[in-house]
Design a protein that fits this description.
Rossmann fold, five-stranded parallel sheet, 37% helix
Length: 202
């Protein structure tokens, strides 16, 4: 099968992405090319009363690009997938919105972020959220599992977007919805640029 982006080493790209977000997890006070931390979450307009219950364990390593909840609050009882959940900030906000009967499943490919997210969920005392390891192009969930998929600054990092959206369509229930915050571009990227891993990761 031909690669989605000719000449792009996807394995190397994933390794570099994991390296970057491991650094965000292990050294959240470091300066990155993108904004991070609780002050950034607040600037994005997250609901203050829900954000107040999210531990610093999660917020310190927040690296989202916008606010998926600006597209609408989640409803109590909904079952939610957080695609690329990182340190868990979005998942923990969502878990409060859908409680008590609803649930949130966060999925991420970076072990350090998963560990941080699980610790934050325990600190927050939220029992309706779990975090699992996996990749967006091959989700480890049954068909029609979720009512809503949220995602924040993740899909732009993945070359095979057709595979991602095919998987999201598969795991969403009929009538389900996407609430995606992500990076977009206004002009086509050159072939050389599409092969540049530094442009993908930073």
């Amino acid at each position: 099968m031909e690669p989605v982006v000719a000449g792009l080493d996807v394995a190397e790209l994933k390794a570099e992405i994991a390296k970057t977000y491991t650094a965000v997890s292990s050294d959240p006070d470091r300066e990155f090319i993108f904004p991070t931390g609780r002050a950034w979450v607040q600037d994005l307009g997250y609901p203050a009363e829900l954000l107040a219950r999210v531990p610093e364990t999660a917020c310190a390593s927040f690296a989202g690009v916008a606010n998926p909840f600006s597209l609408g609050a989640l409803a109590a009882g909904e079952h939610v997938l957080d695609l690329g959940s990182g340190a868990g900030t979005d998942s923990l906000v969502a878990a409060q919105m859908v409680a008590p009967e609803g649930s949130v499943t966060g999925i991420d490919m970076t072990p350090a972020m998963l560990e941080r997210a699980r610790r934050a969920a325990t600190e927050a005392g939220l029992g309706n959220v779990v975090f699992v390891a996996g990749e967006a192009e091959e989700l480890p969930f049954a068909d029609e599992t979720f009512d809503v998929v949220i995602s924040n600054g993740v899909i732009d990092l993945i070359p095979d977007k057709d595979a991602v959206f095919s998987e999201l369509h598969r795991v969403l229930r009929p009538g389900g919805r996407l609430q995606v915050a992500d990076v977009t571009i206004q002009r086509p990227v050159s072939e050389e640029g599409r092969r540049n891993i530094d442009l993908w990761t930073g």
